[in-house]
Design a protein that fits this description.
3-stranded antiparallel sheet, 424 residues, Initiator Replication protein, WH_DNA-bd_sf, Arc Repressor Mutant, subunit A, WH-like_DNA-bd_sf, Initiator_Rep_WH1, alpha+beta
Length: 424
Amino acid sequence: MQQEEIQHDRLTGALRRQSVKKNVAAIHVSGKLTLLQRKLSNVLLLNAYDALITKPKHQIDAQTLCLMVGYNSNDMATLKQSLRSLAETTAEWDMLDEEGRQEWGVSSLLSYAKLKSGVCEYAYSPALAEKLHDPKVFALINLNIQRRFTSGHALALYENCYRFVRTGSTGWWPIDLFRRLMGVDGSAYYESFKHLNAKVIKPAVSEVNKTSNILVEPELRKMGRQVSEIRFRIKENPQLAMMNIDDGEGVRQGRVYARLIEVGVSDRLARQWIAEHGEDYVSQKLEYLKGRAGVEHPVRYLSAALRDDYRAEKPPAPRPEVVEAERARRAVQSKAELEAEARGAAVAQGRRIRAAQMARVRELTSARSPTQRDADRRLFLAGVEDEVKRAEFARLGWSAALCVGEMVAFWEDMVPGAFDDLGE
């Protein structure tokens, strides 16, 4: 969870009818979290959500956690530092309880975290867990949307605005509070609204509107000549609204959901995978996993299979009667049909090679340190002249399939022979 101001309307009966203004709960987090630390916080919450108030502690495979967040799977030092930052960060809330009484509280974001035998164990304080589990107070972030963000300021703005999507506006934030929400408080540079607007607000609004399921528009209030407050108008992005997770019961009734649960996938992650990839695709990867005997960590393996589109190396040998039928079909097939089939096969082969190249790019980038990855991105962008491709890479990073040719050339220069085994 990051700094946020969240819509909260828990009054019932007479108290609710007498309420003129909606009761807003302010929950924000001290400290300046990086983009990856923000993503880590959301992944940990997603993993724990189903048992958030019934279990005192939660566990997740450490390498799986790294892969989901975007760390190198073996970079335990970075993971430790990020967990330390979350444990040292405080969350504060101020809200009305069910009976209309004011409640203030403060808690560390994680009460503890530890790594042992390849497993990350962590816990939330009971009071904070209760707030995080209440959908009226806190809304989970779809990881499919989260992974699209390349800026920590943009992700922070999205998280704070997404809480208010149903009301259409964040309400007015004092500009000092907004600086804290964006993690730039304490910086003399951002005391100037001109700098705050140019370097934080405008880029963050642009990225939220391009990459997420909501559209935001800032509005300002001034006191004299100084900007004193800011709010954001919010509406759903019709092009990306489908990326919302279906929280209904329909998915839970399906066979694919049941099979995911059987292999150890959590309820929330199972529904997210189905929403993101579709039941057919997830079912294919479950079948692939079923044929891989001895997999030690099935959830981690399945996550990689979905991400990198694992396929069986060799199809099963066809039965003799199937072979004979195919020969007969080809005997009467016209030359034009054969040529069309060949073209289709060439296209399919091209797609397979491109997918393999993209997977290799991910392997190469994941092996780099965070500092190296930042330098690699800047160096790559400096060599891309096409504005459309530059925009696509700025949005998706090394997952930008539109730039696959340029990325292969870039990494071939960095690591000669890195793609030689993938074919032409």
